[in-house]
Amino acid sequence: MTSAPRPRDAAATRGALLRAARELFAERGYDGTTVRGVADRAGVNQALLFRYFGNKEALFAEAVTEQALAPLSEGPPETLLERILATMFDDAPGSAMFFAVLRSEGRAAEAVRTELGTAYRAAFAALAGTADPVEAELRASLLLAWLLGLSQTRAEIGASDAAVVAHVLRGARALLDG
Asked: Which residue ranges does UniProt annotate as crossing the membrane (predicted)?
């Protein structure tokens, strides 16, 4: 007697693949993560990964982008800087993914960084205390560059995360307010 085929739950499978991909990309970066590794961690055949995402680049983009953009929509604009700094310095949910994007190399990672940069720059520009869009864009770009630099050198700063966050908040607000 043959058993009935197991019912398929496409949403659950897709979700398991995304969770596994986020974990592995955060641990190993883009280059260190394999399609087979993601499928194995999700407990599915790797053919399903290709069915749902097409390729590793598309999986990376979806897995990373959603989580990395979350701080932009998880609260009011006036607390955006606090949310971003919490992601960067307080090991908040999403921080591992944030750093995975920065660490990863290649076209997929560059495309995601470009998309995220555009979104964050627009959010920062909206916070700038100027009606001049060129000046707002400049302030937003400077803030984004500063935060990216801080994220890559945070271990070398030699101060508590709370002290760094307090100083960065003051500096960021001064830059945006002009």
From this structure: none
Kindly state whether residue 2 falls inside one of the protein's structural domains: no
**172 inside domain:** yes
- pLDDT of res. 4: 45
The tokens describing 77, both together, are 């604009």
Segment 11-22, tens digit of pLDDT: 899 999 999 999
Structure tokens at 113: 């960084």
Q: What is the CATH number of the domain that holds 116?
A: 1.10.357.10
Note the pLDDT of residue 156: 83
Cα–Cα dist 144/137, whole Å:
10
Q: What residues contact 24, with CB distance under 8 A and at least 6 apart?
A: 32, 33, 37, 38, 41
Rounded CA-CA distance 87/139 in Å is 21
